């Protein structure tokens, strides 16, 4: 009997180690305030979806569709902004948060709601810029201390304030992008950029109610 128990224990341990490790998608919040580009805030998604094992490596920001004096006058067309590797490496990783699959889905719904193809894509420097976009993402994660009216045009200062208010919930990074990216382990297989579906009517209404309107994609300003 003792021998059978030992064999069962060995088999159980072998099966445990043979199973793929469960992971999750981590969202990292970034700021960019270097070079000739405008200050910008965005977030990246990296990791593996627990339910499917699908690796993910993507990033999203929000910006005006074109930079012109019209930005200073009021609402203009906006777009999602997908940052290129060099841009990310010259940005600063401020903090990260490990999401559940449900939170990951909520972030994809946010992306769809601000996408000009699937949502309401309007940009307003004072009411709906890149900082408002990451603010909405943080809200969907359940983070607190998000209301900083005087920092809504200051990506780095805003994200540092949010990190400080959630120091017990997030991992504070405060590192240059190049160093942070070098510290990340490789993903198991080639990652994919998630394709968020169009938001449900209720979801779009929630976003519009919280921010006023919606938007879409670039690599620079906020």
Describe the secondary-structure layout.
Layout: H1 2-18, E1 25-32, E2 40-48, E3 55-64, E4 76-81, H2 85-89, E5 92-98, H3 101-114, E6 122-123, H4 130-140, H5 155-165, E7 171-176, H6 177-183, H7 201-211
Biased composition (Polar residues): 211-222
Keywords: Signal
Signal peptide: 1-23
User: So how many helices?
Assistant: 7
Biggest sheet layout = 7 strands, antiparallel
Could you tell me the mean pLDDT? 82
Rg measurement, Å: 20 Å
Helix content: 25-40%
Organism: Sphingomonas zeae
Keywords: Signal
Signal peptide: 1-23
Region (Disordered): 194-222
Could you walk me through the main structural features you see in this protein, from its secondary elements to its overall organization?
The chain is built from seven helices and seven strands; from the N terminus they run H-E-E-E-E-H-E-H-E-H-H-E-H-H. The chain is α+β, with helices and mostly antiparallel strands and 222 residues long. It has one domain (2-211). The protein has a seven-stranded antiparallel beta sheet. A hairpin with a 6-residue loop joins strand 2 and strand 3 (55-64). Helix 3 (101-114) packs antiparallel against helix 4 (130-140). The model is unreliable at 7-22 and 201-222 (pLDDT under 50). Residues 1-23 form the signal peptide. It comes from Sphingomonas zeae.
């Amino acid at each position: 009997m003792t021998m059978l128990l030992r064999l069962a224990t060995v088999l159980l341990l072998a099966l445990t180690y043979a199973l793929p490790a469960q992971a999750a998608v981590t969202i990292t919040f970034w700021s960019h305030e270097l070079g000739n580009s405008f200050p910008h805030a965005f977030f990246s998604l990296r990791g593996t979806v627990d339910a499917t094992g699908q690796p993910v490596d993507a990033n999203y920001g929000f910006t005006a569709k074109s930079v012109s004096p019209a930005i200073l006058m009021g609402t203009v067309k906006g777009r999602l902004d997908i940052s290129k590797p060099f841009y990310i490496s010259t940005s600063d990783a401020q903090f990260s948060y490990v999401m559940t699959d449900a939170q990951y889905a909520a972030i994809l719904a946010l992306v769809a709601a601000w996408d000009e193809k699937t949502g309401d894509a309007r940009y307003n420097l004072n009411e709906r810029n890149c900082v408002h976009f990451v603010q909405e993402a943080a809200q969907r994660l359940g983070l607190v201390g998000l209301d900083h009216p005087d920092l809504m045009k200051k990506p780095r200062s805003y994200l540092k304030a949010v990190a400080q208010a959630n120091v017990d919930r997030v991992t504070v990074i405060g590192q240059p992008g190049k160093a942070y990216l070098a510290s990340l382990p490789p993903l198991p297989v080639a990652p994919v950029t998630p394709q968020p579906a169009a938001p449900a009517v209720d979801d779009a209404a929630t976003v519009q109610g919280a921010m006023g309107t919606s938007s879409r994609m670039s690599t620079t300003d906020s």
